[in-house]
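Standup notes
- DV: blocked on the single-chain target, sequence here:
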Amino acid sequence: MSRLVMKFGGTSVADLERIRKVAALVAAEARAGRQVAVVVSAMAGKTNELVAWTDGAGAADPTLNMSDKSDDEYDAVVASGEQVTAGLLAMTLRNMGFAARSWMGWQVPIITDDAHGKARIDDVPPEKLAAALEAGEIPVVAGFQGVDRQGRLSTLGRGAGDLSAVAVAASLHADRCDIYTDVDGVYTTDPRIEERAQRLPKISYEEMLEMASLGAKVLQSRSVELAISSISS
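- DV (later): unblocked, structure below
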C-alpha cells in the first residue's frame, strides 16, 4: 500500500469551510487505498497574531538570569496555532467516518536541537506514525513544531510547515509528499503580482532550492534541502 504525506498551508486551512475542503481531498486519497498522513499549518494570520501577543508580554527580567531561555515560552505560544488546525481537521475527518487523530510535534516525536524559534530537526523516529498508518488511522500532524531533548516544545522558524512535511515523509519513506498552496504550481515569478508569470511543467530540486533561497515563497528552502538529502541517502 502506497504512503502519501499531504501538507496544507495557512491559506488552505484559513476557516472551517476550507478545512472541510481539505478533509475532502484527504478522504479521496484514503478512499483510493493509500495510507495518508497530513501536516498542517496554522490558519492564515494566526501565527502573526500569536507572535504579537508574545511581543506584548515582553522578555524575561534580566535579574532572573534566564533571558537566553525566553524563546522556549515563545515557542509554547506560537505553536498553538498549528495545534488548533490539526485538531479541527481530525474532528472533521472523524465526522466523515475516518479514523483520524491529531499529533503534536512532541508526540511524533519530531526531535530538534534547543535553538528555540529556529530549531533544526535532528531526528523523526517513524515507529509511532507508521503504526498509526498500519492501523488504518489518518495522522494529522501539527507542522512547524517539535520537541528538544530536554522535553521542551520547539518551533522550526517561520514557514517551516513544509520542512515538517518533508521530514515526516522522509521518516515514513512515503511515496510522495504533496504540498498544497494557493497557487497551482511553481511559476517563473509570483503570479499574484505578475500576470505574465508562467507555470513550470517541472523543476529540479537544485533549481527549486535556488529559487527558494532567493525568496520564492512557494517552498521553504530548508524543506528542499532536506528533500535532496533524503533522496541521496
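- Follow-up: The longest helix spans residues 16-31.
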